[in-house]
Design brief:
This protein has 5 helices and no strands. The chain is mainly alpha-helical.
């Protein structure tokens, strides 16, 4: 900076004044940007490179070794039955986890494809 200029500390009140003064213009610009971004990022402008699908069922929590090794297996549940609602909810929570998503993206370099 030159000798004539004095450094002024940042005052957030000025930022608030500018935001309040131009809130209509900022709102219009934001709406236009959202509309344009949704149009130009749609599949009409960007062709999808791949599509993946999966069918995933939670398994029952019965241990196969418990069934095979124990003669007096108390639970009479089928080994191959699907999981209960609670197990399904737990699986969905794990699959919707950001940590799992980020780890898979990093592991398979999905951002580079």
């Amino acid at each position: 900076m030159g000798k004539d200029q004095i450094e002024k500390p940042f005052f957030s009140g000025i930022l608030l004044q500018v935001l309040l003064k131009y809130y209509k213009q900022l709102g219009y610009i934001s709406i236009i940007v959202i509309i344009l971004a949704s149009i130009f990022s749609s599949e009409y402008f960007i062709t999808p490179l791949y599509q993946s699908k999966v069918i995933l069922y939670p398994t029952a929590s019965n241990s196969i070794s418990k069934v095979l090794l124990s003669e007096n297996f108390v639970n009479n549940k089928d080994i191959l039955e699907f999981g209960e609602d609670e197990q399904t909810e737990q699986m969905l929570q794990v699959l919707n986890s950001n940590k799992i998503r980020d780890r898979i993206i990093n592991k398979y370099n999905l951002l580079e494809h």
